[in-house]
Design a protein that fits this description.
The protein is α+β, with helices and mostly antiparallel strands. It is built from twelve helices and twelve strands. The strands form two sheets. Strands 1, 2, 3, 4, 5, 8, 9, 10, 11 and 12 form a ten-stranded mixed beta sheet that branches. The protein has a two-stranded antiparallel sheet with strand order 6-7.
């Protein structure tokens, strides 16, 4: 915000007074209901990052093409850069080879493994150029967007359309920051992707000191829980988001600040998020009817000997138990620990 509340109030009062004076109308009492300013601190959204997508990671030896195409070999030479070409020239050459690989693949002259290898090496070259640019200080204009292009995708357990609709619809910027590991320096440039099937389900514009930036700097993932806070979400996001992708409401915790408490706050109430049964009933499907239809299908499959009786019982029990699971969201990691997004109100 590049103005103070006093400046905001003076501008409003001045303009109303000018209009009233010119129209010879008595100056009114002014009552302002500045919705976002009043309720924005009311809540924050807590999301867990559970996956990282990196454009430039190596494919690994087991996925290397058995016979390397010349375009892949040319890119490998650029990556080693034994001739010590300049950053801009290497970027131009690598981009040309990447486009050549794409064209050859479309025409059927390049197989999928070579296409993937060319893509991977191209991003490794870009990372190399970007690192050199940070050390050199000066960056040619064409290379300014490299950090944006190289940003990782951190996949988070939430839906932009359910919980941050204003970001998608109005380009509203919400502060985003890690909630822990605050004594470690973040080193990874990332955008946030949600788990919906929509390509717009992402946060790729963030608050910067002067303007906006295309990525946020976060910590590397380390196979441990990593939580982000999305702040100043106010009181409107969940209501406007409705039931996008049938995710339902997130788990909610009411937190009150209290100086007398040992930690300076206490949790007054925790509200459980939507279950699958609750959400499907909201779109006029009944849990009992669906379970009955599933049982009929399993019985028919059992009679045809397509499914063993014991397997049929197990499938039906699984289906019925899933109805009671939360929609936000029962992701089972390798350790067996459940992860879910949480909305914290205060």
């Amino acid at each position: 915000m590049n103005y103070s509340m006093e400046e905001y109030a003076r501008d409003v009062v001045f303009n109303i007074r000018e209009i009233c004076d010119s129209s010879r109308v008595a100056v009114p009492d002014i009552v302002s209901e500045s919705g976002r300013a009043i309720v924005a601190p009311h809540s924050l959204l807590v999301v867990e990052v559970f996956e990282r997508i990196n454009k430039r990671e190596s494919l690994g030896q087991q996925h290397q093409p058995k016979v390397k195409h010349k375009v892949v070999e040319d890119l490998e030479v650029m990556l080693k850069n034994k001739t010590k070409l300049g950053r801009l020239e290497r970027f131009h050459d690598a981009l040309q080879k990447k486009e050549e690989a794409f064209s050859l693949f479309n025409l059927g002259y390049l197989d999928l493994e070579n296409r993937a290898a060319a893509e991977s090496i191209f991003w490794q070259i870009c990372e190399q150029i970007a690192k050199e640019g940070r050390k050199a200080g000066y960056q040619p204009e064409e290379l300014h967007d490299l950090d944006k292009l190289l940003a990782d995708q951190y996949v988070c357990n939430f839906s932009v359309f359910q919980s941050l609709l204003d970001h998608w619809a109005l380009k509203q910027l919400f502060p985003v920051a890690p909630l822990h590991r605050l004594n470690e320096k973040p080193t990874v440039n990332a955008i946030l992707a949600d788990i919906t099937c929509d390509s717009d389900g992402k946060i790729s514009s963030f608050i910067d000191l002067q303007d906006t930036k295309d990525y946020v700097t976060l910590h590397p993932l380390n196979n441990k829980p990593y939580y982000l806070g999305i702040f100043l979400t106010g009181a409107y996001q969940d209501i406007m988001g409705d039931l996008h992708n049938l995710f339902g409401r997130v788990n909610e915790v009411h937190v009150f600040l209290e100086d007398d408490e040992p930690n300076g706050f206490y949790i007054e109430e925790a509200l459980s998020g939507s279950r699958i049964a609750d959400v499907i009933e909201g779109v006029q499907y009944q849990q009992e009817d669906l379970c009955r239809k599933m049982k009929a299908q399993i019985d028919a499959a059992t009679k045809k000997d397509m499914v063993k009786p014991r397997e049929g019982v197990r499938l039906l029990e699984l289906y019925e138990s899933q109805m009671l699971n939360k929609t936000y969201l029962n992701i089972e990691p390798k350790s067996g620990r459940k992860r879910s997004s949480r909305k914290t109100d205060r």
